[in-house]
Amino acid sequence: MNATRYRLLTQLLTQPTAPFRESLVVDFVTKVLTRAGVPHFFDPIGNIVVGCADARAYRRKLRAARTPVRLFIAHMDHPGFHGLRWRAPNRLAVRWYGGSPVKHVAGARVWLANGDGYVGDGRLQNVKLHPAGHSIATADVVLARDARRSDATALYGGFGFRAPVWRSGKRLYTKAADDLVGVYAVLATALDLYRARRRTDSPFLGLLTRAEEVGFVGAIGHFELGWLTPRDNIVCVSLETSRTLPNAVIGRGPVVRLGDRRTVFDHSGAHLLSEIARTVLPGRHQRRIMDGGTCEATAAIAYGLRAIGLSVPLGNYHNQGFEGGPNCPRSEGPAPEFVHLDDIDGLVTLCRELLRPGANWSRPWATQQRTFRERFRSQRALLR
């Protein structure tokens, strides 16, 4: 990863974000796209559509496509909390959205932000867990300094560590890799395409969504618009930062995601993606059903769309200290997420290769079928 791209990645990872509070990520992304001359627009939900200047051009591109448009989907939020009200000058009642650690959370450090940026730090107190026991429900944040000048409901935040992002070797530790790494991959792919001036004929589109962590809300809203027609002209490509699992190891390359906890993905598209990965990243990619969670590919499939997936293996998923490391004092307590730079580079490589002409999207199994036929012919006499 060159210095320019590394700076883009780390600046993006630094941005505060939480479900329904993605505005600073949105501001950063749109500035990058505007400077590079990449067309983009907002859908009525507040998602960013990358690669077209407006909804009319978006629908026109889908209708005119001679090969399936690859719609790369990544989400801009990460689990976190919203401010509710002030209990005291330095004590803020908050509600949590999305997953979280449930152990060792009392006294955990958090950051706070509003629409202008970071406004301070605090500590969690009076933590109450969700009835299902899988996350925080509500808590108080005791502020390190008085931030009452801010409207309580404008504040939001998440777990805080020594810095928003830092590097150790080829690992990046951060407050939120899931799914800002996926957002980075969409940005990097768009920047490469528009620098190469393949603007008019590229089958690329990006969809950067809101509120994925609370049930794919942004993606569902986009699918509900009814713009994604004809469906045969679209392949949704979920880009995720997914919990590391056996056979999906940090540092061994991006994962061709065959499915998630809910469902398997499009078998023909997954086969084509696997063949591309085998060709361009031999020995440097992985294949697995990433069932540590669900992703927006499941939402796309529920709406009758073809969907495939790519993932970067993620340590300390949703800031839970499963893998430990720096700033993780207690197992399964709050911890920074971490990813590997080589995995991220591989992810961008596969995004770029998915857009190259020549892939047989109409008959992805043609090569394998020829092999089967030759095998049958060579041994047919033995069946007599």
Pick out its properties:
globular; 384 residues; alpha+beta; single chain; 28% helix
Q: What would your notes on this structure say?
A:
- This protein is of the alpha+beta class and 384 residues long.
- Helix content is 28%, strand content 28%.
- It is built from nine helices and 17 strands.
- The protein has helices spanning 3-14, 23-36, 55-64, 180-195, 217-224, 267-280, 296-302, 341-354, 366-379; strands at 40-42, 48-50, 69-75, 80-88, 91-97, 109-114, 117-129, 136-143, 156-159, 165-168, 171-174, 204-209, 234-243, 255-259, 286-289, 306-314, 337-340.
- The relative contact order is 0.16.
Structure summarized in a few sentences:
This protein has helices at residues 3-14, 23-36, 55-64, 180-195, 217-224, 267-280, 296-302, 341-354, 366-379; strands spanning 40-42, 48-50, 69-75, 80-88, 91-97, 109-114, 117-129, 136-143, 156-159, 165-168, 171-174, 204-209, 234-243, 255-259, 286-289, 306-314, 337-340.
